[in-house]
């Protein structure tokens, strides 16, 4: 299977720039995910690769072939859309066969591929049915099958699971991963769901406002985000962001004084001393502290770093999610986990301990992560 390479791709819809200077390479046989908030440009990139839209500038390669001027039908890619795009008057078998028959594929080979693909997707018993007789999950499998049966060089999937219910989405996501491991076809998958991105991808391209924020494997994105946007996008519930000031030895969160560990002081001092941004006056820096909910713990009052007031409790079976606000600053909120058997009520004042070795420090204006 070939690589897919985008070099300095831009797409403008005057006066709006949808994507700007996008460059990345998906190696042969890998599964990459484009992820980001709505309107970030991820579906636009997929359409450009498929040939359904034309870049304003830049080059797109599939393998070693420049495909800027190559029509969609000659790019040998298969795209699965969010709305499935099945032909309602055709049976499942006819939907699967349609693309092959357009290409004049031998009838016996068509039948063979249909049978093999239907078996792999567990839809062999549905071949005589029409799309209107299928559930959403079954329709999704047929849409995937129509792409697989062509044996394309590249798969492009545009939020293919968004119309499924939660349980079916989990099941289909696992099937997709297994299919890729079996077929080994270069795959680019678009989603706004960070769980899908984390569980499926070899590498994730994080987009925001038409620009790449970071490209890394899922674990690196979670542990070493380059900026606050990436940090808060990954993780459920998202990372807590606490506006703070840093005076060189401690973090001031509201009226709370949080001593900064010595190792972190040295790392921060080097970064902040070299910063040139005018909004960072020497010796007193406005920053945002980030900490994930799993790194905040209920503790005894004597060892508390923060005191908060519980504002909402969400029981989730084996644990509960607590939403709270700082006792001294109700506008600053955070979330953390509590054990299912811990008694926590709305209005309770709760002492919290923070894992300081798990803190993130972001520039308050640019969002840059100071610790990488």
Beta fraction of the residues? Answer: 25-35%
Helix count equals 9
Beginning-to-end CA distance, first to last residue: 35 Å
Structural class by secondary-structure content: alpha+beta
Output mean pLDDT.
90
**Which value, in Å, is the CA radius of gyration?**
25 Å
Please summarize the sheet with the most strands: 6 strands, mixed
Note the run of SSEs as H and E. Answer: EEEHEEEHHHEHEHEEHHEEEHEEEEEEE
Overall body shape: elongated
Number of strands: 20
Give the strand order of the largest sheet, numbering strands 1, 2, ... along the chain.
Answer: 6-7-8-3-9-10
Give the proportion of residues in helices: 25-40%
User: Which runs of at least 5 residues are low in confidence (pLDDT < 50)?
Assistant: none
GO molecular function, one term: ABC-type transporter activity
Keywords: ATP-binding, Nucleotide-binding, Transport
Protein name: ABC transporter ATP-binding protein
Domain ABC transporter: 4-234
Describe the model.
This protein is of the alpha+beta class and 372 residues long. Helix content is 26%, strand content 34%. The protein has 9 helices and 20 strands. It has helices at residues 42-50, 92-102, 107-120, 136-148, 166-183, 194-200, 218-223, 228-233, 262-273, and strands at 4-13, 16-26, 31-35, 57-62, 65-66, 77-80, 154-158, 186-191, 203-208, 211-216, 240-246, 250-253, 256-259, 285-291, 296-298, 306-315, 319-326, 329-339, 349-354, 360-363. Strands 6-7-8-3-9-10 form a 6-stranded mixed β-sheet, with helices on both faces. A 5-stranded antiparallel β-sheet has the order 13-12-11-14-20. The longest helix is centred in the middle third of the chain and has 18 residues, at 166-183. The protein is elongated and about 75 Å long. It starts with a strand and ends in a 9-residue tail after the last strand. The relative contact order is 0.12. The model has no long low-confidence stretch (mean pLDDT 90). Pfam families: ABC_tran (PF00005), OB_MalK (PF17912). This is ABC transporter ATP-binding protein. Keywords: ATP-binding, Nucleotide-binding, Transport. GO terms for molecular function: ABC-type transporter activity; ATP binding; ATP hydrolysis activity.
